């Protein structure tokens, strides 16, 4: 595919915005993937090149959260491992089961989740994970990775956001630590997909490289915002991501 200045002007600003949103609350793919499709890439090339942009940005965000001590390495590592397994299982399940029922579930569940976040204003303000025993924390982290990996392999959009919410609700992390742990999970998942697509020759490098630079910039900006502002920055971004996911799912059902 020939990459023109028009293509770059369509993709690069949206990939920057995607990286910013993804670093704060996950769900950046809801912005970046449509950008590649809008620029004229076929679906497989769009998905592959999108990973080129996201893997480096997610890696940068992960390093920043690690440097600031906002990642619990044990739970994050367990969750990342089980997420890879869940992703494989989800991809295979996708071949057997139509995803229509999941669309209907999301259309019903997303507004409920948004209302919960709207009224639960203390959600994720404090880190209460130390109240859980070590084995229970590891078990919950493993289950989160498995279930969300399965969702990511089966359907995908918004998986990073759901990982943050799950770490906060079940493991009782504050939103910043939950976001840091989610970055580890996302990075491992993105890296595996990136290597697979690169070896298959599906990535449009002439577009993927400049997009990756914009993604790095977006992730750097977003991770700094999340680390500095904490829940005050993360909570509002959740509503943006959940709204985008609801619109995407409803449009797919209508189509």
TrEMBL record:
Question: What kind of membrane protein is this, topologically?
Answer: Multi-pass membrane protein
| Descriptive protein name | Probable membrane transporter protein
What organism is listed for this UniProt entry? Intestinimonas massiliensis (ex Afouda et al. 2020)
For the keyword Transmembrane, the answer is yes
Give the source's domain of life in one word: Bacteria
Q: Where in the cell is it found?
A: Cell membrane
Report the family membership. Answer: Belongs to the 4-toluene sulfonate uptake permease (TSUP) (TC 2.A.102) family.
What InterPro entries would the database entry show? TM_pro_TauE-like, TSUP
The taxonomy runs: Bacteria, Bacillati, Bacillota, Clostridia, Eubacteriales
